[in-house]
Design a protein that fits this description.
Number of strands: 6
Oligomer: single chain
CATH topology: Rossmann fold
Shape: globular
CATH architecture: 3-Layer(aba) Sandwich
Length: 170
């Protein structure tokens, strides 16, 4: 009796091989973490824990400066080693809300984009996310199923050959 073996698509095999190699790699990576501004409180604690753990392992984290997930990443990494954190803003620091500015002033590696001040925030955020992904080895994203900008950023990262971990709140 013969049995057939269903083989996965080749592109999925490549992704799996890349993910397995990443798990075995003990080298330090630049990890982008992006996510929604509106996040359940329990999830905020999870993001802070993940960020702290990655910083303790010696990885460098890259994020943006908004509230929610990005602010949790900033808090987590600042509590371990501020030198392990880079924050890219979609616009200038002056365009950020006051509650964000207080936290962002503690960031050692802060990149502003005043040339994007005249753009609508969603467009500036999309450009910012692309640059964050370009500076990273992999992307961890926390989103909702209707988070268009974040989901587009995940597709961009995949197209660039980055390992993407996408977690949904809903």
């Amino acid at each position: 009796m013969t049995r057939s073996l269903d083989l996965p698509f080749l592109d999925r095999v490549d992704t799996l091989a890349q993910e397995l190699a990443l798990l075995q790699d003990t080298g330090k990576r630049r990890i982008a973490i992006l996510g929604s501004r509106h996040v359940p409180v329990v999830s905020i604690h999870l993001v802070e824990l993940v960020s702290r753990s990655l910083a303790q392992e010696g990885h460098n984290l890259v994020t943006s400066g908004s509230q929610g997930v990005n602010a949790a990443v900033i808090r987590g990494v600042l509590s371990i080693d501020p030198a392990r954190l880079t924050v890219l803003l979609p616009q200038s620091l002056d365009r950020q809300p006051g509650e964000s500015r207080d936290q962002l002033e503690q960031v050692l590696h802060l990149v502003e984009k005043p040339e994007h001040d005249d753009l609508p925030l969603p467009m500036a955020s999309s450009l910012c996310n692309q640059e964050i992904i370009g500076r990273s080895d992999q992307l961890i994203c926390f989103a909702f199923h209707d988070s268009e900008t974040l989901l587009s950023s995940c597709r961009t990262a995949e197209d660039m050959g980055k390992v993407v971990s996408l977690m949904f709140f809903d």
